[in-house]
Amino acid sequence: MIIVYNTDSWAMKVLILSGKDKIRTAERIAGICAAVGAMPSIYGDTGNCKKGLYSCLENSDLILIVWNDESMQKHDITFSTGYCVGKGKSFVLYSENIQTVPLCNGKAVLLSKREELKAFLIEEVNKKTRQKKIEHAKSRILEMGFNIDIRDLIEVVSEGETRIVEQFLKAGFSVDSCDSSGVSLLNIAVRKGHVQVASLLIDNGANINAVSGDRCNTPVMDAAAEGNSEILAKLINAGAVLDLKSKSGQTALVLAVGRQAEDTALALIESGADIDIKDDLGMTAQRYAELFKLKRVLLLMDKDNR
Fold first, then answer.
1. Rounded to an integer, what distance in angstroms lies between the CA atom of residue 127 and that of residue 180?
2. Overall pTM > 0.85
């Protein structure tokens, strides 16, 4: 007999095989499976392995065999263990008396306690859920007309396609992926001024202090160089380091002042950026502010120096 407890297509499918004398144990195991989010089916021994069992085995994510001393005489269970060994498919042998379980070739997991079984099932369900989410995201990417390729990810980040970038991240691509020049996705989004994509990457754990391979810029430096106060605020709130230097020895504050982006410079100063760090020309942010006559910046710098 086959008993299906739920029909969630995303759930891990667990086929529970048992002789008639262990059907109660099988039902308890099915309850554990359902409780942890799996979709259990019970296949009781029929003495005829050709009536649907092969299809059940093929369509299951995990095969769990309730074992006892007489299991080797059960036709369906004998067939199922042979199927798993032959296919190299993982399966669980559950017995409350583990000493009676024979050694099996293949990927058998031997369990004898319900607590162990529950912990194992939780881990497997989580693993399967992650796998199915990745597969679903890859399908969505293909449906949107893109390849499952880092170059396409870089393209959609550059174009500001937040929805598609999200699918790439769900498909398992690293949030810290870089282009051929060593420029991170976050740096690319910042340089292009894509606030939503930058926010998505930050929220997904992107390295907010990543140093680009071309300019040795961090995302904060790129935001300052572009005068993008909105992205800069997100980076500051995320705890980005403000006083690192670029390839030219320039800090984010120097870059903001050099661009004459006063609001960006003010935000950096208010967040604690050092106004006295010199670049490779020996110039500080304050000296550049004096050169460009940035009155609001100089006023805040004077207050900062008191």
1. 32
2. no
Q: Which of 115-124, 230-239, 248-257, 296-305 has the lowest mean pLDDT?
A: 296-305
Q: Which residues contact 9 (CB under 8 A, 6 or more apart)?
A: none
Instruction: Give dist(CA 164, CA 194) in Å, integer.
Output: 14
Q: b/e map of 65-101 (b: 16 or more CB within 10 Å)? A: bbbbeebeebebbebbbebbeeeebebbbbbeeeeeb
Distances, alpha carbon 277 to alpha carbons 47, 53, 239, 270, in Å: 82, 73, 20, 16
Q: Which CATH number fits domain 2-112: 3.30.420.280, 3.50.50.60, 3.40.50.10140, 3.30.710.10?
A: 3.40.50.10140
* Residue pointed to by tokens 């199922």: 80
Residue 45, pLDDT > 70, answer no
Give the DSSP letter string of 47-62: S-TTTTHHHHHHT-SE
57 Cα distance to chain centroid:
30
* 76-93 pLDDT tens trace: 777 888 888 888 787 888
Using a 10 angstrom Cβ sphere, with 0-12 exposed, 13-18 middle and 19 or more buried, the burial of residue 252 is buried
Distance CA 27, CA 32 (A): 9
Residue 283: other Cβ atoms inside 10 A = 18
